[in-house]
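so my prof wants the structure for this chain in the tokens format not the other one, which i didnt know existed until like an hour ago. anyway here's the sequence
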Amino acid sequence: MADTSGGGLAPAPVPSGASLSPPSNSELDFCAENEFVTIVPAVRLPRMNLVTLTLMPSPATSCLGFDNQQGTIGPLHPQRETLVPLWLALMLKRAGRARIRPPEWLTEDALRLYLKAEIASSAFSPLPFRYLEISQLILQAAPDDM
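here's what i got, hopefully its the right format
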């Protein structure tokens, strides 16, 4: 008998009585915390070995403190902008060891331009996928950095 499944894997069965619910706000925040943001460290911090470091914004970031092959960040130097995952930026901000530089799309001028463009057309502005969660996390933790 011939295989008519197309050679792909069959979807995993859903247990009876189980329902798929949308992710919670904390789960969405968790996903957003893997996005990279720019920080300005206030202190020198040594190289940090992370369990994983898989989300790289672009190959050009390797000169800004990332080593994707080794899963490390740093060392971080005072007053030198560095890209780090949002979760690390939030942790350093709360400890008073860094300022978070708002993403370009989160500046007042950029937001005004996005609003003007959306009013003039029916299309949405090209914001990052998790812009709502990212902006909320940054604004809650670092309103003084805006």
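also thought this was worth mentioning. Residues 53-69 have pLDDT under 50 and may be disordered.
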